[in-house]
From TrEMBL:
Residues 171-306 form the Quinate/shikimate 5-dehydrogenase/glutamyl-tRNA reductase domain. It holds the Pfam family GlutR_dimer. Catalyzes the NADPH-dependent reduction of glutamyl-tRNA(Glu) to glutamate 1-semialdehyde (GSA). InterPro entries: 4pyrrol_synth_GluRdtase, 4pyrrol_synth_GluRdtase_dimer, 4pyrrol_synth_GluRdtase_N, GluRdtase_dimer_dom_sf, GluRdtase_N_sf, NAD(P)-bd_dom_sf, Shikm_DH/Glu-tRNA_Rdtase. Keywords: NADP, Oxidoreductase, Porphyrin biosynthesis. Belongs to the glutamyl-tRNA reductase family. This is Glutamyl-tRNA reductase. Possesses an unusual extended V-shaped dimeric structure with each monomer consisting of three distinct domains arranged along a curved 'spinal' alpha-helix. The N-terminal catalytic domain specifically recognizes the glutamate moiety of the substrate. The second domain is the NADPH-binding domain, and the third C-terminal domain is responsible for dimerization. GO terms for biological process: protoporphyrinogen IX biosynthetic process from glutamate. NCBIfam families: hemA, PRK00045.1-3. The keyword NADP applies. It comes from Thermanaerosceptrum fracticalcis. It comes from the Bacteria. Residues 320-419 form the Tetrapyrrole biosynthesis glutamyl-tRNA reductase dimerisation domain.
Amino acid sequence: MFIIVTGLNHKTAPVEVREKVAVAKYRLQDHLHYLMEKQGVSGAVILSTCNRTEVYLSTGEIELAKGVLQEYYGKIANMTVAEILPFLYTYEEEKAVHHLFRVSAGLDSMILGESQILGQVQEAFQEALKAGTTNNYLNNLWQKAIIVGKRARTETFIDRQAVSVSSAAVELAKGIFGDLEGRTVMVLGAGETSELTARHLVANGISSVIVANRTFARAQALAQEFGGLAVKMDQFHDYLKEADIVISCTAAPNYIVHPSDIERIQDQRQNKPLFLIDIAVPRDIDPLCASYPNVTLYDVDDLENVVQKNINERLKEAEKVENIIIEEKENYFKWVCSLKVVPTIVALKEKAEGLKKKELDRAFRRLGNLSEKDKKVISSCVSSVVNQLLHDAILELKDASYSTQGLLYAEVINKLFNLQIEEAPEKTRVESH
C-alpha cells in the first residue's frame, strides 16, 4: 500500500483557482465517498482550507491514483485536466508523508508556524473517520501528523513570536502593560490596518475602545462592533487622556498628534504608561512625542523590524521542527515496514500452535490416564520449546522489516514453512479509531 497526495495551495495557485476546488465542510463526506468508488483507492482524506486543498489517498496502484486525483480536481474546478494540472503538485510515499508533517507543523503555511492549521488537520481526519474512508495506513499517518504538529508547538517556539504588524503591536503592548485587561485603546482612522490591530488588542483583553475617524459614520460602525465609543476626528484630543494605547493610521498629510497634546495630558495621567502605535505613511505622530516620560512610540518601520526579527527567530525554530518531522517520519515508515512481515509472523505462530496442539493430543492419547497436573507440565514444556525456537526467527524478521530485507526474509520463511498467507482486501474502511 502506498500514500499519495495531490493538491494546490497559496504558492501554486491564485485565489480564483483555489476557491474553485475548495470543499465546504458539509460536502467533505460526499467528496470522500466519490473518491472511494474509484478503482485503486483504498482510503482517502481531504484537507481543504482557504489556502490549500489536498487529497491524501492510500492506494496499491500509484499511477492509477494519480489519474483519479487529476480527474477529480478537473471535475470540481470545472476545468480540463490540462488546465488544472499546472497548479497541482503530487507527492508519493516519503515525500507525501514529509509534506503532510510540514503542513501540520505550520512550515508550509502562508505565515510560518501558524497554529490554526493543526486544528484543520485534525478536523479533516475526523471527517474522514465519520465517512469511513480511512484505513490503517491513513489512521497511523494522521496520528503521526497530529503528534508532529503538537510537538512543534510544545518543543519549539515556532508559533511564539509575532509575525504581523498587528500581532507585533499586541506583543509590544503586553511588554509595556503586562496584562491588557482594563486597558483602553484609541483608534485614529478606521482603516483596515488600524481595525485589524484594534481587533487583536481586544482579543487579548482590551476592554474599552474609542474610535475617531473623519467619516463619523465609519467611526460609529467600528465602535459599535467593539462595543466602544465613536468621536469626531477633531475631538479626539479631548479623549486622549483616557487612552493607554493609541493606534493611528489616517491619510493625513501631516502629523495629527503633537508633543503639545502629550504634554497637556501628562499631569492627568499621573505617569501612567502611554503606548503610541503609528502605522500611517506619512506618519501621524510627531516622533518628539516619545521624549516624554512613560511614553513609548513605534512607527511602521519599528514594527516591521520587530516582525522581521521574529520571522528570523521562527526560521531558526523551523530547523528544530524539521528534526521532529524526520524522527516521526522514521517512526511511521518503521510501522509501515513492520506491516509487511506481520502476516508471516501470524501465520508462523498459527502453524506452530496447530502442530503443537496436534502432537500434544496424540501424546496424551498414547500415554493414557494422565492427571491434569501432568498434562499442564507437558504442555508447558512443549510450549516453551516451540516459543524458544520461534523467538529468534521472529525477532530477526521484525528487525529486517525496518530495511529492504524485510520482504525477502518473509518470503523465505513463507517458503521454508509452507505458510499460507491470506491477502488483505483492497479496500479497508474504518468507521472509528
